[in-house]
Amino acid sequence: MHFHILPLVIECLSKDKSSLRSCIQVNRLWCRAAIPVLWSDPFRYVTEDKENFPEIIFIYLGSLEKTEKQIFLSKIPDDKKSLFKTPTFDYVKFLKHFNFWMVVSSIKEAARTLNNLKEINIVYTSPDANTQLFYFNDDPPLEGTIKTHILNLIYDRSLRLDQLTIADHYGLGHFLQEKDYNQFKRVRNGNFLKSIKKLSFCIDYSSFYKIFSWMPDHCPNVAKLLINANFPMLKSVELWGDYCDEIVNWGKSISPQFYDDPEDD
Questions:
Q1: How confident is the model at residue 132 (pLDDT cuts 50, 70, 90)?
Q2: Using an 8 Å Cβ cutoff, are 246 and 212 in contact?
Q3: How close are the terminal C-alpha atoms of the chain, in Å?
Q4: Which tens digit of pLDDT belongs to each residue from 76-101?
Q5: Which of these, 182, 189, 185, lies nearest to 156 by C-alpha position?
Q6: Among candidates 60, 256, 49, 44, which has minimal Cα distance to 168?
Q7: Are 153 and 60 within 8 A, CB to CB?
Q8: Could you tell me which residues come within 8 angstroms of residue 68 by beta carbon, excluding any fewer than 6 positions away?
Q9: Domain ranges of the chain
Q10: Are 135 and 172 in contact (CB under 8 A)?
Q11: 91 φ, ψ (degrees, to nearest 5)
């Protein structure tokens, strides 16, 4: 097969994890072509196999700089340190779709694995809707440490990022609040948000204006906007019209789409 055709073949298999893994085993050339595609949206696969939750996090943590890694491993039980081997590739740089809440869920599962804890389902009922939502308490120490390292790795090393989802896989999840999006405003890598072309999130009414007051400056290249308002009133044309000016500030007219699941395109 001609080298220039190989990327096209790999792209056709981009949604087939099993075939992509088979490509990796063909030879070095196929491996180098398949790895970036397989790792462009790795957290998509955790819904298929829950064991992938901690595995992806462990692989990411294995790529920490030497000093950072030594400090991190000093906080890990000795019988778990073998999980953090230095990976063959810098997988973080291949990330194209950053699903914030899938990453957070994976971090929580990884922390449970390291602490030998059983899974605990914590839910919170929103006062604005009769819907049970995932709710994240203040992070335990180990979980907070892992989250800091993982998010910094993504913020600093992701070179191909073009899609940001701030919701869980089911489209309900955690409402985007000020403490959540402030993390993105403080990112050291100035290109992190500027590269985003597709943005989707859950939102509540009280956060709506705050979010759109900073988005145009931080995400100037957004071309597709998906919003899960989680209650019908925010989907009305009249209410949306109050915020159209903020959208136009992006320098282009973006038609926001309301959705029930982040995977809906």
A1: very low
A2: yes
A3: 33
A4: 888 888 888 888 888 888 898 888 77
A5: 189
A6: 44
A7: yes
A8: 149
A9: 1-38, 40-258
A10: no
A11: -60, -30
Longest CA–CA separation in the chain, Å: 59
Alpha-helical runs (H) found in the chain: 6-12, 17-24, 28-38, 52-61, 66-73, 100-114, 141-157, 178-185, 191-194, 205-218, 237-241, 244-248
- Look up residue 83 and give its two tokens: 């999980």
The residue ranking higher by pLDDT, 45 or 96, is 96
Q: Which residues have a Cβ under 8 Å from the Cβ of 73 and sit 6 or more positions away?
A: 81, 84
86: number of CA atoms within 13 Å, CB side?
Answer: 6
At residue 173, φ and ψ (nearest 5 deg) are 45, -145
Q: Are strands 132-134 and 123-125 parallel, antiparallel or unpaired?
A: antiparallel
Q: What would the two tokens of residue 68 be?
A: 């950072």
Find the Cα–Cα–Cα–Cα dihedral 253, 258, 264, 265, rounded to 10°: -10
- Residue 163 is classified by DSSP as E
